[in-house]
Amino acid sequence: MTDEEPDQARHTADEPASTDLTHTTEGGDVQMVDVGEKPESKRRAVATGKIRIQPSTVEAIRADEVGKGDVLSTARVGAIQAVKHTWETVPMCHQIPITNVETDVDLDDDAVTLTVTVETTGTTGCEMEALQGVTTGLTVVWDMVKAAEKDEDGQYPEARIEDVRVVEKRKVRVDRD
Amino acid sequence: MTDEEPDQARHTADEPASTDLTHTTEGGDVQMVDVGEKPESKRRAVATGKIRIQPSTVEAIRADEVGKGDVLSTARVGAIQAVKHTWETVPMCHQIPITNVETDVDLDDDAVTLTVTVETTGTTGCEMEALQGVTTGLTVVWDMVKAAEKDEDGQYPEARIEDVRVVEKRKVRVDRD
Amino acid sequence: MTDEEPDQARHTADEPASTDLTHTTEGGDVQMVDVGEKPESKRRAVATGKIRIQPSTVEAIRADEVGKGDVLSTARVGAIQAVKHTWETVPMCHQIPITNVETDVDLDDDAVTLTVTVETTGTTGCEMEALQGVTTGLTVVWDMVKAAEKDEDGQYPEARIEDVRVVEKRKVRVDRD
Amino acid sequence: MTDEEPDQARHTADEPASTDLTHTTEGGDVQMVDVGEKPESKRRAVATGKIRIQPSTVEAIRADEVGKGDVLSTARVGAIQAVKHTWETVPMCHQIPITNVETDVDLDDDAVTLTVTVETTGTTGCEMEALQGVTTGLTVVWDMVKAAEKDEDGQYPEARIEDVRVVEKRKVRVDRD
Amino acid sequence: MTDEEPDQARHTADEPASTDLTHTTEGGDVQMVDVGEKPESKRRAVATGKIRIQPSTVEAIRADEVGKGDVLSTARVGAIQAVKHTWETVPMCHQIPITNVETDVDLDDDAVTLTVTVETTGTTGCEMEALQGVTTGLTVVWDMVKAAEKDEDGQYPEARIEDVRVVEKRKVRVDRD
Amino acid sequence: MTDEEPDQARHTADEPASTDLTHTTEGGDVQMVDVGEKPESKRRAVATGKIRIQPSTVEAIRADEVGKGDVLSTARVGAIQAVKHTWETVPMCHQIPITNVETDVDLDDDAVTLTVTVETTGTTGCEMEALQGVTTGLTVVWDMVKAAEKDEDGQYPEARIEDVRVVEKRKVRVDRD
After folding, report:
1. What's the CATH number where A56 sits?
2. Region Disordered: which residues (chains A, B, C, D, E, F) (predicted)?
3. Among C41, C49, E169, F66, which one is least packed by beta carbons within 10 Å?
4. pLDDT digits (tens, 9 = 90+) for D89-123
C-alpha cells in the first residue's frame, strides 16, 4: 500500500467538495494541517518540468557546460535551496527534515528538463518541496540565459516553463505494484 | 523604444552564442551582472501561468471563495512574498526596490490562471520577480488543494503547472508601438 | 504534573535571582540553553492578544470578511509564518518541529483578538512561537487597516496592541488538575 | 504639514468604510499599495510598548546589566533585526531602506519599556517597522527571563506585553505644530 | 572509535582523488549527500578562530565590556544565529536540529579569539555550523570596531581573520583516547 | 581623497579609545549607525582570504573543474549570496543596494584563495559584505571537500581558513595615489 493519506484521497461525486480543502477549516479559514499524530516514515517525491528555449540557447548552455558548467550548476544550487526553503515560500507547509535532494538535468534541442527528487523522514509528504525545486531551478536557468532569449524588443517570445508535474510520490521501501 | 538593454538582445547567427550568457564570464564562471552604471528608471514586468486541476477542485475553490477566499488569498500572499524574495531564490538576481505587485487570478473550468505584475524603480528588469511570483503562487494553490487532487494511490494524475511566460516587460511610460 | 521544566520554576525568596536567567551564563554571557538531554514529548502553548482599533475599522474588516476575508486571512498567514520563524527572530530560541498551528480571531466592537495555538514534538516549549504568532498577526492587522486608523495628522490615536499573554503551556496528554 | 498621506486619512461618517482598507482592492483582494509615484523623503516613526514582569525579574535583569548586559543587548539586537525584516514578516509591507534604528530601554519596578525609533528615506512610512521592533524586542526579553517568570506549574501568571503604540510618525525636518 | 564516517576518510595514494568529493556526483554535478540511512546520534563540533586587531581596539572592547559588553554579546548573537542558518548559507548543508551552541571569547593583547561549540542530534556532523559561527562572529567583531581599526585612508592595515580551524569533531559520549 | 569617513579614522593616542566604537552609544548600548545624512556614492570593497587544504584535495578540485567545476561554482554562489545577506548575518549592518559582486578563485598547491569584490551605491561602505563573501565562500569549499580532508579519526588536521583581509576599500572613480 503506497497511499500515505488514504483518508484524504480524491473526493468522489457524492462527497461534498469542500471537505477536500484540508488547508481551510470548516469555517473557511486558512490553517496548517496537524501532523503531530502522523507516524514518521521515509517519504520520497519526484517532480519534473521543463523550460522551452531557443535551440541556440541550448547550444550556448551546452558549450558552457563543456567549460565550467556554471549555468546548470547554479540551477542545481537554486533548486536545492528552494527545496529546503519550501516551508517559508509555501505558507501552509511544515518544515520537514530533508534527507536527500537529487537534481537531474536533460538538454533537448529546444528545452531544458529538470527533475528533482526529494526524500524526507518527516510526517508529511515532500512533493511541494520537489515542485519548488523544479520551478525555481527552471527560473534560475531562465535568469542565466535571459540575454540570449530576449528579442530585439526586450521580450521573451519563446521562453516558457511548462509541464511541471509530480511524477512520483510514495513512502520509500513500500512496494508499488 | 522600449528595449531596455539593446546591447543584450537575442544573438544573431554570426555572433558567438557564448556572449549571450551574461551571468557567466568569458572564462565561464558564474557572476552577477554589474548594474552600477545603469540608470534608474521605472520598469514593469508581467508574467502569467496556470495550474491545471480537476473541475471539481475548481468548484471547491470557487465555493470557498464565496465564503472566505482563503485559498486564493493565501496564494496571493505567497506570490507577493516570492516576488520580494527573488534576490534570494534566484542566485544571480540583484535586490531591487519593488514598488508595486499586482496579482490577478482567473478561474477556468479546469485551471487557475495567475498573472503577476511587478514594478520597480531599480536598475534591472523585474521579470524574474514576476516569474517567481507566478510559479510560487501556483504552487501554493497546489498545496492548498492537494487533498482534492490526489487519486486513491496518493498521486496527482491531472495537476500540472504550465504555460508560465513573461507576457510583457518594459519601461513604464514608454510608448510601445 | 504538567510543568516541563520543574528545575527552572520561579525563584523563591531565598534563591539568588540571577540563577533564573537561563539564557545568560554564570559569567553573564548570552547563551542558548542545551536541550540535547531533554526528552522529546508533545508540547502545546496558547498565546493571545488584541489590537484595539476604532469601531468603524472593525466594521470595515467585518464587511470585507463577508466578501473575501483577506484582512484576516493575511493576518493568519502572517501569524503562522511568524510561528515558524521564531528561531530566527528570537535569537536564543532553538528551531523546533512545529506540528500544528491554529489561529482564532474574534472581532469585538473596538478590538480584534487573536489566539494562536502551537504544538511541537521538540525538546523545548513553544510559547515563544505562540507569542510571535500573536504579535505578528496583530501587527499585520494594523498594517492592513492603517489608512482607516490614521487621523488627519497621520497619527494613530487609538490603535494599540495589548494584553498579549501566554494562556496555556503544557505537555499534551498530561492531565492538568 | 506633517500628514504624509492626506488622501488616506481616517474616514468620516459619510464615506464608505471599505475605501479605507488600502491593502484590499475594491473587489476585496489582498494587494500591496503602489508606491512608485510617491516622492522619496526622510520619514521617521517611533513605537513603544512594555512587558510587565515580576519585580524580582526586573532586579535580575538590572543585576545582569551591571555585569554584562546581555539580556537587554540581545533584546536590542532582536529589535533591530526585526525592524529590518518587517518586509518579510508583514506580508504587504515594502522593503524600504532603513537608515537608522534607535532602541531605548527603561526599567520600571515591574516592567521593561522598549521604545524603537526608525528612520527611512523610502517612499512609505516606517511605523510597521517600529512596531515589529518593539514587539519582537519585548518577546526577546520574555524569552531571556522565562525561567524566572514561570510559576511552579510552568505558567506565566504575570508576564504580559501591553500598551504597544505608535507614539510618533512624521516626515523628518517637517515642522509639527 | 570516534570517526563517524569511516568510509569517507582521507583518501590514500592508491585511491582516485575524485571519489573524495562527496558533494559532486561521479558525473561531476553538485549534490547533497543522502543522510536518510544514517543513524541519529549526538554529535559535537568545536571550531575556533581569531581576529587580529590593534591593541588599542582590544582595550576599547575591554573597557566597553566593563560597562555593557555589547560588542562581544552582539558577536555572540551573530555567531549563534550563523550556526542556526548554516543550512542556508552553505548550499549543500542539511538542516539539522541544533541542540546546543556555546561561544567562548578570549581577549589577547592584539586579538580576539572566538571558539564555538555546536551539538546536534542529527544525522550529519556539525563542524560547518561551528565554522560559520566562528567566521560570522569574528566578522561581527570587525564590524563593531571598524571605526577604530581604519587608518586615515579608510583602510584596515592590521585587521585580519586567521587560524580558523575545527579543533574537535566527534560523537558525544564516545571515548576519545 | 579617498577616505569616506574621515571623522571615524583610527584614533590617535590622545583620543579616548571608547569614542571609536561607533556601534555602541556613549552609554555602551549597541546601536546601528545613522546613515540618513550620508550622501550616496559609488563604493567598492575588495576582501580576500584562503583555505589551506591538502595538495591532493586541490588536485581533486582541479580535476573536477576540468569536468563540471561544481565545487568552485557552488563556492561562488555561496559567496554571492553571503554578500547579499550581510545585513542579516551582521546585526548592525544596513541593507545596501549591491550593484556588483565579483569572485576570483586561485588554486595554489595547498590552498584555495578567494577574492570578492563588492560595489554599492549606498550610503555606507561594503567591506563587511566582501568579508562575508570571502569567509562563506571558503566555508563552502571546506564543505565540498570535507570527505577528502578528514583523517582516519574524522578530524581536519590541515584544513584552515586564514589571512582574511580587506585589501581595498574606496569610493569608486576617486583617484588613489
Report:
1. 3.30.70.640
2. 1-42
3. F66
4. 999 999 999 999 999 999 999 999 999 999 998 77
